[in-house]
Amino acid sequence: MILNDAGKITEYWWRRIPEHYPGVQLDAFAVMPNHLHGIFHAGHSGEQREPGSQQRLDFQKVSKLGRIIAYFKYQSTKQINSFGNAPGQKVWQRNFYENVVRDEKSLNAIREYIAKNPRQWEFDKENPMRTWRSAPGQNAAPSEP
């Protein structure tokens, strides 16, 4: 994936998250033309936990996740709009999708998905340059009327 200016700004602000939120560690991520995939660990500094061990959902951490994403979206949107001279232009969708990773196997599968996702852009239904070929292992798209 070759990033345009908005993509470079997005990557810049994603990489700044740990500077604003100590204790957050970035993992795999991929900036796509219309979204971002990213993993980060948002535990307390030095917090160690065995992969796969059961942990109750901590609503303070869920709230922290929302603050982290809001900070990232705000900063990146502000700079993208400033760069494009388009104040107030919407950049991100209202919410975000999250997945709590519970074990090392799931973490590795998500990392692999993120690493392979840019190669799947050609087949994404939101790609305006998409061909009607299907991605390997998927059914072909219906023929056009």
UniProtKB/TrEMBL annotation:
<feature type="region of interest" description="Disordered">
    <location>
        <begin position="124"/>
        <end position="145"/>
    </location>
</feature>
<dbReference type="GO" id="GO:0006313">
    <property type="term" value="P:DNA transposition"/>
</dbReference>
<dbReference type="GO" id="GO:0004803">
    <property type="term" value="F:transposase activity"/>
</dbReference>
<dbReference type="InterPro" id="IPR052715">
    <property type="entry name" value="RAYT_transposase"/>
</dbReference>
<dbReference type="GO" id="GO:0043565">
    <property type="term" value="F:sequence-specific DNA binding"/>
</dbReference>
<feature type="compositionally biased region" description="Polar residues">
    <location>
        <begin position="136"/>
        <end position="145"/>
    </location>
</feature>
<feature type="domain" description="Transposase IS200-like">
    <location>
        <begin position="2"/>
        <end position="117"/>
    </location>
</feature>
<dbReference type="InterPro" id="IPR002686">
    <property type="entry name" value="Transposase_17"/>
</dbReference>
<protein>
    <recommendedName>
        <fullName>Transposase IS200-like domain-containing protein</fullName>
    </recommendedName>
</protein>
<dbReference type="InterPro" id="IPR036515">
    <property type="entry name" value="Transposase_17_sf"/>
</dbReference>
